């Protein structure tokens, strides 16, 4: 999964538009993109969108945060539509995942779904306190599929006046990004980069996405359909990377009892083999 495109939960038109693109996942949003008075209507519309499934995309639903008291109502409304996963905003740590997992288990059973099938992705850096919970995601639930970092709400939590300048995040946001990446790696789930908000700056989007992939992120959240193809391409291995990966795998296949090898004048070991398999999508 490389691209996760947000779609407002109260806009079937935008859902249809998004479904025509090549995003790996669509996140139907019941949180920030839906005003309070329209949330009941949006739940019904979201259920209808889930049941439509017009394309091959994975379908996630971003519910409202636990602190709002609306999370369970959101889940009960959409689970009959069999979403592939739930995005939990403003998550504080592993305990929040366990709470949502408990609700999902009951709702899956009530809807005749396979218990445990619905995945959870947490937006894990939206408050200052959430940063201190990043280490608690490891082992919290087999449902956990990814950790996404976000800067917009974090800015409000910090009382900051600016997140970035010259296309570069200021240090508090770089810290949140890096810690989220490490927390995801520790928990063995997908690290997901935040949205790019300068809609028409496609060169900036590509540069940011390539930097995210270089650092270890495996996917990016998106807020506009025209970002999808750029992000998908940026997460694809280059031809040089593919050639290197094939050579590493072939070298170890020819020397199965060796822990280290010499390849093109460089020493390689088992971490290089794991990296090569990851590039080629091999287990």
TrEMBL record:
Question: Does this UniProt record's set of keywords contain Magnesium?
Answer: yes
Per its record, what are the GO molecular function terms? lyase activity
Q: Which InterPro entries match?
A: Aldolase/citrate-lyase_domain (IPR005000), Citrate_lyase_beta/mcl1/mcl2 (IPR011206), Pyrv/PenolPyrv_kinase-like_dom (IPR015813), Pyrv_kinase-like_dom_sf (IPR040442)
Q: Does the keyword Lyase apply?
A: yes
Cofactor field: Mg(2+)
State the superkingdom: Bacteria
- What keywords are annotated for this sequence in UniProt? Lyase, Magnesium, Metal-binding
Q: Name one Pfam family in it.
A: HpcH_HpaI
HpcH/HpaI aldolase/citrate lyase domain sequence ranges? 2-225
**Family to which this protein belongs:** Belongs to the HpcH/HpaI aldolase family.
Task: Spell out the protein name for this chain.
Answer: CoA ester lyase
């Amino acid at each position: 999964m490389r691209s996760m495109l947000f779609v407002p939960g109260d806009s079937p038109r935008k859902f249809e538009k998004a479904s025509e693109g090549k995003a790996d996942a669509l996140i139907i949003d019941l949180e920030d993109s839906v005003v309070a008075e329209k949330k009941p209507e949006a739940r019904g519309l979201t259920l209808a969108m889930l049941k439509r499934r017009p394309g091959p995309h994975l379908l996630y639903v971003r519910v409202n945060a636990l602190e709002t008291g609306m999370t369970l109502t959101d889940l009960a409304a959409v689970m009959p539509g069999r979403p592939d996963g739930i995005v939990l905003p403003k998550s504080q740590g592993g305990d929040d995942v366990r709470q949502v997992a408990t609700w999902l288990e009951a709702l899956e059973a009530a809807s005749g779904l396979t218990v445990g099938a619905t995945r959870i992705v947490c937006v894990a850096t939206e408050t200052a306190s959430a940063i201190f919970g990043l280490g608690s995601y490891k082992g919290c639930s087999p449902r956990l599929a990814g950790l996404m970092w976000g800067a917009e709400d974090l800015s409000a939590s910090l009382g900051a006046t600016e997140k970035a300048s010259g296309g570069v995040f200021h240090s508090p946001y770089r810290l949140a990004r890096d810690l989220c990446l490490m927390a995801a790696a520790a928990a063995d789930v997908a690290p997901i980069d935040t949205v790019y908000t300068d809609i028409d700056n496609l060169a900036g989007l590509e540069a940011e996405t390539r930097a995210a992939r270089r650092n270890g992120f495996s996917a990016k959240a998106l807020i506009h359909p025209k970002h999808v193809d750029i992000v998908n391409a940026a997460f694809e291995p280059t031809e040089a990377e593919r050639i290197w990966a094939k050579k590493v795998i072939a070298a170890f296949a020819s020397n199965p009892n060796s822990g280290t090898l010499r390849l093109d004048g460089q020493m390689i070991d088992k971490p290089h083999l794991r990296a090569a398999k990851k590039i080629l999508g091999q287990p």
